[in-house]
Amino acid sequence: MDLIIRKARVSNRPEALLDIGIESGRIAAIMPTLAADGPEYDAAGNLVCAGLIETHIHLDKSRIIERCAPEATREINPVASVAPLKKSFTVEDVGLRAARTLEDCILHGATRMRTQVEVDPGIGLRGYEAVAALVAEYKWAIDIEICVFPQDGLTNYPGTDELLVEALKRSAKAVGGAPRYDTDGAAQISRIFELAREFDVDIDIHLDVGPTADHLYIHQVCELTEKYRRGGRVVAGHMAKLSTMPPDRLKVVARRMADAGVAVTVLPATDLYLMGRD
Q1: In terms of domains, do 62 and 27 share one?
Q2: pTM of the model
Q3: In a domain, 159, yes or no
Q4: What was the pLDDT predicted at 111?
Q5: For residue 149, what are the β-bridge partners?
Q6: Which domain holds residue 56?
Q7: Helix (H), strand (E), coil (C) string for 183-218
């Protein structure tokens, strides 16, 4: 065997200590006492499970909380806190911070990840270049997809569109957006779908954050998903407005998303990128 994991627990037989034999990159045997030779690892009764999937993280902005000024009000606006810092980000700076966060994710069991990476005239492609280097450096441990997106706006921020196109030409696997940061959010969403179709990439878009559900972009996203036949390749992230809806209305929106093939990830408003100390 290439590796034998001794005295492990698995989810469907938690009461038993089992040996797991691995050969040619695959599990070859699971039994109480495996008679085989090879390098061994003592799991000491700990759970062995499939690798975890980190579906939404911002490696390029991790570990910067000490650079952000304290919030002056009870309104938390991490985007406004980060925007003035991005001009000072270098490829080396982003790479060092992102690598520390990535290593923590790996140590906690993540084997697949999709990370959002901002591109705009403030940061250019420096964040993308840093994270793209980590994709290759850590491929032995984790599969990373980069989703490039315009956090600070697209139609309102000249030069951002060209940077998105360049990142997609460099093989970014997904494109995202944040329509509430544009005057015409619907125009941003339309452009994101155009780019996804042109480069044949997935969509993972920050959507519908706010204290009320008076206006939802998710309906436009569902319509375009069906129009361009991208069901199963679109994710709406954040979606905090769903928590403000009564159950009967929420069921209607959920059914609409399911019918269109749009998945959802719901995250805290502060997201995951303002990570501080270890």
Answers
A1: no
A2: 0.87
A3: yes
A4: 96
A5: 118
A6: 52-265
A7: CCHHHHHHHHHHHHHHHCCEEEEEECCCCCCCCCCH
